[in-house]
Specification:
8-stranded antiparallel beta sheet; 601 residues; 6-stranded mixed beta sheet; elongated; alpha+beta
Length: 601
């Protein structure tokens, strides 16, 4: 479609469970993208995991053709279904940069949530025209006026022309389509200029290779053209060009203002960086599109197979998953306690959970996950700076000048009744309050928190304190110097590297006591006493002792002098002393799995 005035590119932004994917389903149905037989719930969520959890993990695009009621003309609507979770914030920012407008979907019974705010601010930063859509208006609990005033107070958007819909029943969804045509601006772009296209997303298809999702800014991408990635400098001939309707449909070209996919026989997703600029190799543009940044893992943890013979399977599985998700990294590591495994880096806690679950489901692996840790910056006394991913690798404190840890800016929305306990939780986790405002009966607290405290069990505690009503969202803020120490766990005076962790000096003793108490219940008793200690350097800060199993050696003494019994007991004592010196404590795998579980008290 060469007439740009008949194209609309838009994204749907919403908090988890506010009906984003359901609205996308209704729009596809109304525009005849699929017939009823091909239609299914949450159509754009292709992974089983996305469907079960009700979340969107990968961005998807759909081209719809809509005949407007106001002028009878056919409009090309390009819908971008974006992930909603904070871990995928960068992908969301690139998806929004590919559009000119957004539909802001808010649940009319729940109101504005923390993630709604985060994504709306991203849309405002991308200069989007935003249409508020109030979903679930057919529910008895819906309070449209309250939610409208909330949107106006908290976000500052005018809701006089907002659309009240029910995505489930299809009520007023046609009004949403009319609003898209009348209120969202058409894209800009010059068809005759040099080719400039943004790489919005990419994934691996076992039959087709890497599929690249693009938004063309200027010029035309054609089949047979040699394209160049400006960030990596890689050059590939384009094999296929097309669009999703949502079925794959091949076309001859993609012009300025349009969205679609290209394939160029690329074998690895790692070669395609989200946000990169694609141009024509023979007539390249000199200017790359702004906003590109490589993905940086913020949370690291160790993944080890429960059965050591599964190590090769784990290696192959991680390599296959990386084909689909270039934002996660892994490198091999060994642990004295857990054997061979991998140190993996993730965008956040949800990302970590999803990768772990996909490994267990898709590749049938049993895994032990070590406690997640964040990336610390260590400034050494010789002036160099090193990044620390694994607590076990921390060097001698004498060589370290200072350690900086990452802090985040967190937005928590919570009903007034639970506010006191939430504020106490944030203070306990070394939080610094930046702001506290109200939207009706809901409080919005903005805190600066160390990421280290969030990855431990913050989210679980937040949900249990607020009975699930609090919503939480965070952005990376900065690295700040902190008084951090490495806590080593010793079992029978031997350090267990897999259980070592880094904590703030004020939290170290409590956390050390907690893990020692947990291990005391998990490690079986031996024939000798087993001490479990938490230590910072050479100083023990917590200790538990597992009592010895004792054989009754005096059972065969009937009567006689007491000295006979004493002699036998003394002999037993000597034996235990020797056993303790040379005996090994076997820590069962279940003890590791349970000791490393977060949030269990």
């Amino acid at each position: 479609m060469s007439d740009l005035s008949h194209i609309r590119n838009f994204a749907i932004i919403a908090h988890i469970d506010h009906g984003k994917s359901t609205l996308a389903d209704r729009l596809i149905q109304l525009c005849g993208g699929l017939n009823d037989r091909e239609m299914k719930e949450q159509l754009l969520d292709s992974m089983d995991l996305e469907r079960e959890r009700g979340i969107t993990i990968k961005a998807q695009t759909v081209r719809l053709l809509y005949t407007a009621k106001r002028d009878g003309k056919v409009y090309q609507l390009n819908l971008m279904d974006t992930p909603g979770h904070v871990d995928f914030a960068y992908e969301v920012s690139r998806s929004l940069a590919a559009c000119e407008g957004s539909l802001l979907v808010v649940d009319a019974s729940q109101g504005v949530e923390a993630q709604t705010l985060a994504n709306v601010y991203q849309a405002i930063d991308a200069n989007h025209e935003i249409i508020p859509v109030l979903n679930k208006v057919d529910l008895p609990a819906a309070d449209v006026d309250r939610v409208k005033s909330q949107i106006e107070d908290v976000i500052g958007l005018d809701t006089s022309e907002s659309v009240g819909i029910s995505a489930k029943t299809g009520l007023n969804v046609d009004q949403v389509l009319e609003s898209i045509v009348t209120r969202l601006p058409p894209p800009t772009g010059d068809l005759n200029a040099k080719v400039q296209a943004m790489l919005v997303d990419s994934w691996y298809d076992p039959y087709l290779g890497v599929v690249i999702l693009v938004r063309v800014r200027s010029g035309t991408l054609k089949k047979g053209m040699r394209m160049r990635m400006m960030q990596t400098g890689a050059v590939h001939p384009i094999d296929k060009v097309g669009v999703f309707t949502p079925k794959m449909l091949e076309t001859d070209s993609l012009s300025a203002g349009e969205m679609g996919f290209i394939m160029a026989g690329i074998k690895s997703v790692a070669d395609c960086s989200i946000g990169d600029t694609i141009t024509d190799d023979r007539n390249p543009t000199t200017e790359a599109l702004p906003g590109f940044k490589p993905s940086i893992p913020v949370v690291w943890c160790g993944l080890f197979p429960v059965d050591t013979s599964d190590f090769e399977l784990l290696r192959d599985s991680l390599a296959k998953l990386r084909l689909n998700d270039s934002s996660f990294e892994f490198q091999m590591e060994t642990s004295a306690a857990l054997g061979f495994g991998f140190r993996c880096g993730f965008l956040g806690l949800l990302h970590m959970e999803i990768i772990q679950e996909r490994l267990e489901r898709e590749f049938d692996l049993d895994l032990i996950t070590t406690a997640p840790s964040v990336v610390y910056k260590m400034y050494m006394t010789d002036g160099t700076m090193e990044e620390l991913h694994n607590p076990a690798d921390m060097p001698d404190p004498m060589k370290i000048d200072r350690i900086e840890e990452p802090w985040v800016k967190a937005t928590i929305m919570v009903p007034d009744d639970y506010l006191g306990q939430i504020l106490a939780l944030c203070t306990e986790r070394r939080g610094i309050q930046l702001d506290l405002t109200y939207a009706g009966s809901r409080a919005m607290a903005v805190y600066k928190l160390p990421l280290n405290e969030i990855v431990f069990d913050f989210y679980d505690r937040l949900k249990s304190i607020s009975r699930g009503y609090a919503s939480f969202d965070y952005d990376m803020d900065e690295y700040t110097e902190s008084n951090l120490v490495r806590v080593s766990i010793l079992v029978n005076n031997e350090p267990v590297d897999a259980l070592a962790f880094i904590a703030h000096q004020s939290q170290a003793e409590f956390r050390g006591r907690q893990i020692c108490a947990r291990l005391k219940d998990l490690i079986p008793r031996h024939m000798f006493k087993v001490p479990i200690q938490a230590a910072i350097g050479g100083r023990v800060i917590a200790r538990e002792t597992i009592a010895a199993l004792r054989k009754d050696v005096t059972a065969k003494c009937y009567g006689g002098d007491i000295s006979r019994k004493k002699k036998l007991l003394e002999k037993q004592k000597e034996g235990k002393k020797k056993m303790r010196q040379f005996g090994r404590v076997e820590i069962p795998q279940t003890a590791f799995i349970n000791a490393l579980k977060m949030g269990d008290d």
